[in-house]
Design goal:
Blueprint (H helix, E strand, L loop, with lengths): L1 H19 L6 H10 L24 H13 L25 H10 L9 H15 L29 H11 L3 H11 L4 E3 L14 E3 L9 H8 L5 H4 L6 H6 L5 H8 L1 H16 L17 E10 L4 E12 L8 E7 L11 E3 L3 E5 L7 E12 L6 E7 L8 E3 L6 E2 L4 E3 L5 E2 L5 E10 L8 E10 L4 E8 L1 E2 L11 E9 L8 E10 L2 E9 L17
Antiparallel strand pairs: 1-2, 3-4, 4-8, 5-6, 5-9, 7-8, 9-10, 9-11, 12-14, 13-14, 14-18, 15-16, 15-19, 17-18, 19-20
The structure holds protoporphyrin IX containing FE (HEM) and 2-acetamido-2-deoxy-beta-D-glucopyranose.
Length: 537
């Protein structure tokens, strides 16, 4: 009991420290957190669910993603290479045989963004794959840098000798014992694919020869090996390709026995080893702090000038964690206006326009979301907002969510104009973004620009183009005196399908830059902010 009490404050402080470190908004953090934990960009939705037993024909997307991460890291050599996305320039090498790797590249290139370069997607893919199949939660630290070309070769192949494999893992930063662990952690998912070009001598049948008897991330790779029945094609295949047999037996089966006798040992060892694998980056690349989910957070904030000349604020409040879905809960949005006069004493509040929930996120998490949309006269505008939460819904215990004390700030110097912001599918321009800039006394915006993020599907990078916006002329003229409209045409090749992803607009007043929210392009999965076709009037 005394121990329990002593530990409790530590755990609590740790959680609070993680949460306190975050202040909304933090665009780069928010983007990654939402795609990683809330599974909102469609990235994590790609893998099909891990079913209990392999059927021999359905590939495991999770397995393909995990193998991809290893193959990207496997050429690391004392600070050169590692998780840098160079694998996607190296897919024609014999050591990277297998359609799973090119399938993964084709899935990932549609998710490149300023905040999620390819090597971060590869690392996040491994984290998601392991978590979705029931494996441990592995910290994800963003910040990897995309290579510009292929790097050295050196991915281990099943025909290698034990000495060659031990040397390869040592070069990658893993001991002989850790090699056994990392291979077992990888080969708990998926199997050896039979095709003429892949490994027809290892899998002489058809379809996929699984490494163990489940598709889950579990210790069956070890229990099957130690206790049988063992079905691992890299143990039972032709001797020359029995790399798992050579590696697993290399310490007299000590490591594999420890995994077979304890699912917890397997799980925690894999969390550490796969964590180190994805954090193996070239010297000079500094990873940021792990992206942890925020239990309560605003998302999809958007301030817009409507066609009627009013100001609309949209925001969704997300509640995230294990078992958060509660249909009795009442969440209310409150806001202060520009001068805090019409909304004095918390007079302005609104109920959600819709509620959605997701009961089955990875690692036992759930999400309940409350979407708000409120419209006010542009003169009144907004300066900040906050929420109250009543878990029981009877008004007795109401807590406040206010960004750690300072409320969630609204910058109304810059706003979106949805009526004139859209994707275009012909001509030399691929989008038009219209921005409303506040007229505030005598201060004028010195320049207004839009940063567009385009997917370069050949270089596999997010190409950023900054386009200056010009003062709107008819019909792109503001209907109200509080705002001036600026319009930018984003150049691009309309014939490349889904080339563009998202936009950020900003206006410079004196020395201060005001940046609007990230707008999703029509081809991004979350094309929530701008329309698909442009109306010219
Ligand atoms: C000596 C080291 C290794 C060798 C020789 C090796 C070899 C292989 C081979 C031959 C396949 C079949 C691929 C195919 O048919 O497309 C495979 C699959 C796989 N490997 Fe490894 N591997 C090694 C280490 C690792 C490591 C360290 C990991 C990850 C931590 C890993 C993860 C995977 C996964 C998940 C699959 C299944 C892919 C699928 O089902 O699509 N491997 N490996
Ligand atoms: C290790 O386990 C494998 C598979 O059960 C077995 O074939 C092999 O003989 C074992 N090796 C040792 C040294 O016990």
């Amino acid at each position: 009991m005394i121990n329990g009490l002593a530990i409790f404050p530590f755990v609590l402080l740790h959680l609070i420290a993680n949460t306190l470190a975050y202040t909304w908004p933090n665009l780069a953090y928010d983007y990654v957190e939402e795609f990683l934990w809330l599974e909102l960009t469609g990235f994590a939705a790609i893998p099909t669910v891990c079913t209990a037993s392999p059927d021999g024909t359905t590939p495991s997307i999770q397995a393909q993603w995990l193998r991809t991460a290893y193959h990207d890291m496997a050429t690391a050599n004392s600070g050169v290479g590692g998780m840098d996305g160079s694998l996607f320039f190296e897919l024609d090498r014999p050591e990277n045989v297998g359609v799973g790797l090119s399938n993964t590249r084709n899935q990932f290139i549609h998710h490149i963004s300023k905040y999620t370069p390819i090597p971060d997607l590869i690392a996040a893919g491994a984290v998601i794959a392991v978590g979705q199949c029931g494996g441990p939660s592995i910290p994800f630290k963003p910040g990897r840098v995309m290579a510009s070309a292929a790097g050295p070769s050196g991915v281990p192949v099943p025909t290698g000798t034990l000495a060659e494999h031990t040397a390869a893992f040592q070069r990658q930063g893993f001991t002989a014992t850790e090699m056994i662990g990392l291979v077992a952690c990888g080969h708990t998912l998926g199997g050896v694919v039979f095709t003429a070009v892949d490994f027809p001598t290892v899998n002489t049948g058809s379809g996929i020869a699984p490494f163990d008897d489940t598709r889950l991330f579990d210790n069956h790779i070890a229990t099957n090996y130690i206790q049988g029945p063992n079905i691992n094609p890299l143990v039972l295949g032709p001797t020359v390709t029995d790399s798992d047999g050579r590696i697993f037996g290399s310490d007299g089966n000590v490591t594999m026995k420890s995994f077979a006798s304890s699912a917890a040992t397997f799980s925690s060892t894999c969390a550490t080893l796969i964590g180190r694998m994805i954090d193996t980056v070239p010297t000079g690349v500094v990873l940021r702090d792990p992206v942890v989910p925020i239990p309560f957070k605003p998302r999809d904030f958007l301030l817009s000038v409507t066609a009627a000349g009013t100001l609309n604020l949209q925001v969704t409040a997300d509640i995230f964690g294990p078992s958060v879905i509660n249909n009795n809960r009442v969440v209310t949005l409150h806001w202060a206006d520009r001068k805090s006069s019409t909304c004095a004493s918390g007079a302005c509040s609104a109920s959600p326009i819709s509620t959605t929930s997701n009961p089955s996120l990875r690692n036992g998490n759930t999400l309940q979301s409350y979407k708000f949309s409120v419209t006010v006269p542009a003169a009144a505008s907004f300066s900040s907002f906050w929420f109250t939460v009543d878990e029981v819904g009877n008004g007795v215990t109401v807590t406040t969510q206010n960004n750690g004390g300072g409320n969630y700030p609204v910058d109304d110097m810059i706003a979106n104009v949805p009526a004139y912001s859209c994707g275009m599918f012909s001509g030399p321009n691929i989008a038009r973004i219209t921005t409303a800039v506040r007229v505030d006394g005598t201060t004028q915006a010195s320049s207004v620009s839009v940063e567009a993020m385009l997917q370069n599907q050949v270089g596999m990078t997010a190409d950023l183009t900054t386009v200056s916006a010009s003062l709107g002329t008819a019909p792109f003229v503001s209907p109200i005196p509080q705002y001036v409209y600026y319009t930018a045409l984003i150049p691009g090749d309309a014939s490349v399908s889904c080339q563009y992803l998202n936009y950020e607009f900003s206006a410079i007043f004196g020395r201060v830059t005001h940046t609007g929210p990230l707008l999703g392009g029509a081809c991004s999965v979350r094309s929530i902010h701008i329309g698909t076709t442009c109306s010219t009037t």
